[in-house]
Amino acid sequence: MDSGLERRSQRVRAPRRQAPHLQGDLVGKLDMQGRLIGDRYVRVCRVQTADFERAAPGHLIATEEALEARGPAGRAFGKVKRTVIGAPLSTAAAAHERLTKPKALAVLSSDALSSVAYATEEILHVLLLAGLGALALSLPIGAGIVALLLIVGISYRQTIKAYPAGGGSYIVAKDNLGELPALAAGAALLFGYIVTVAVSIAAGVAALTSAVPELRDHRVTLGLGFIVLVTVLNLRGIRESGSIFAVPTYLFLVGIVIMIALGLVRAASNGFVAQAPQMAAGEAQTATQALGVLLILTAFSRGCAALTGVEAISDGVQAFQPPEWKNARATLTWMIAILATTFAGITFLANQFGIVPREPDHPEGYETVVSQIASTIFGGGTPAYYYIQVATLAILILAANTAYSDFPRLSYFLARDRYLPKQFTFRGDRLAYSTGIVTLGILSSLMLAGFNGETTRMIPLYAVGVFTAFTLSQGGMVVRWLRLKEPGWQGGLAINIVGVVTTGVVAVVVGLTNFTRGAWIVLLLIPVLIMMFRAIHGHYAQAAGELAAQTPLEPDEIEHTVIVPVAAVNRVARQTLAYARSISSNVTAVHITDDDAEIEQMRHDWKELGSDIPMVIIESPYRSLVGPLLSYLDEIDRQRPDDTLTVVLPEFIARHWWEQVLHNQTALRIKAALLFRPGTVVTSVPYHLERRRT
């Protein structure tokens, strides 16, 4: 009996269990004590959660479950997002997102290949100003453009081999010519990609309205809808967009090749005798300009739209499957061969069949050159004719994908070098550079709407930036050959010298002949973009040099001065004050008001609370809250300059997100004001209303 009482007397009340001290990898030791004195044991705890996988000590991997939104609105948005762009891909899946050569030809060449749908038409538009007889000059002009295409293509084969990690104009110019030429190339290309999307979409809508004239008045709305479609498809990721875009690209190529082959057979049966161009009854046939060198050069420069998109493969080498540079060169060769063949074929057939471009005010209605050729060969209204028109529409709409591949990638390079905001380096859920994709969609939409969806009005903006980038890239390669003198450098140097001279001359011609037609916009915009790049770079450089610590670096050197703004003495304020006191004993509550009655009520409530925390009431006769608070903090800083000033904000959180608008956003306003105040730490203590259980 006595021994039992003795054992009971030795029993003590079990102390409160100590919370486990979790390490960063969610593993901790829980020190617990049993009922008897000395009965102590240690339990190793590991938090089991689907949100993380433990790869090694101190190394956690966030799972897809960790991405799930917490609230109902967030979950609903997440479901819509997953439906539209697909489930997120891990970074490890990037290697599997590479493109095969057939898919790369569809993704990175669709812009160049689709340009045959409007390049010939642009030549004829200019030549028609000199009368019907001038249209025959489309053949020598087309031959010159094909020769230029071959020169540029061979030059970029050199660039791909020299820069297997990606050799766009920006990279080549930066490596060999310096900062200013590199930024000029980057600015020219960024603007060129925006024009690419707008022109491709507008040309695709033109193909649609040629077959269905009733839709012409809705061309801007249709164009904006197609831009949204292509933007969403690209947000789904590189490989998936390649799979989607491959089918229309190859359907177009099959249709165009068959059309050209049948057209050549028909032309051969007529002995390759070109038909005289025919105008509609009642349409003026008089020349409005004299046929001279300037007009011919203008037609040549407008036809050079056929070369837009040639650089895309050299800029996207890393999108290919290994060996990247070899696959990229092979794809570039195929693209140049196909583009030269189809452009030459359409230009030749337009001459053979006497095709005359039709403006919107044409008596027989607007119709593209490709539509007229297809109608001549297959017959208007036949299934084969509609196949060509639908395939042309599809590849022109999807041709914008080339820009969607290269604009985000170039933006990444510029952001990596701190010439664009760092957000452009971020890869989204589908491993695509989402910021660049969305930015391109917005800017191209504005351009398309601004030019009323008219392809011809935007073409003069097209080639200036492209040939500026071509010239800087080829110039960079010339400097590289002379600097490194790698094996075989003499041959490579000769190729790139021809390239830089040719593209440089064309850039000047394009700029001069299209200056009054809109090229001045590009020539003005490129310097503006360069200044913007340098301003961003200067900000990042300044920020990096001024990242001095504004609070002490050692914990024992920190002396807290804690300020707690309170609106009323309630549970929210009491909770916040308790948290503030746990940080420091140097806590001051501050109440700001313009109401005398409220001042007396606050004094009464504070006295009833019985808190030892001092209360400071600031009367604000001009009804301002943030200004007096900031001034009070400035005064505290002057009195205690060595202390770390911490503002602890009580923040009421409603049960539902839509109820937040019913409450004043005082905490949000204060946080926004304190965000740019140096040396101030801001902490929010949320108070959540308990959800009612049903």
Description:
It is a single chain. This protein has 694 residues and is an alpha/beta fold. The protein has 22 helices and ten strands. It has helices at 2-10, 72-85, 101-114, 119-127, 138-162, 169-176, 179-211, 219-235, 238-269, 293-303, 312-315, 324-352, 369-378, 383-416, 434-450, 455-484, 489-513, 519-545, 571-583, 596-609, 626-639, 666-674, and strands spanning 21-22, 27-33, 40-46, 52-56, 59-62, 560-565, 587-593, 615-619, 644-653, 680-688. A hairpin with a 6-residue loop joins strand 2 (27-33) and strand 3.
Tag the structure with descriptive keywords.
single chain; Rossmann fold; 694 residues; alpha/beta; Amino acid/polyamine transporter I; disordered N terminus; 22 helices; 3 domains
Helix-strand blueprint:
Layout: H1 2-10, E1 21-22, E2 27-33, E3 40-46, E4 52-56, E5 59-62, H2 72-85, H3 101-114, H4 119-127, H5 138-162, H6 169-176, H7 179-211, H8 219-235, H9 238-269, H10 293-303, H11 312-315, H12 324-352, H13 369-378, H14 383-416, H15 434-450, H16 455-484, H17 489-513, H18 519-545, E6 560-565, H19 571-583, E7 587-593, H20 596-609, E8 615-619, H21 626-639, E9 644-653, H22 666-674, E10 680-688
Parallel strand pairs: 6-7, 6-9, 7-8, 9-10
Antiparallel strand pairs: 1-2, 2-3, 4-5
Helix pairs in contact: 3-9, 3-12, 3-14, 4-10, 5-10, 5-12, 5-16, 5-17, 6-7, 6-16, 7-8, 7-14, 7-15, 7-16, 7-18, 8-14, 8-15, 9-12, 9-13, 9-14, 10-17, 13-14, 14-15, 16-17, 16-18
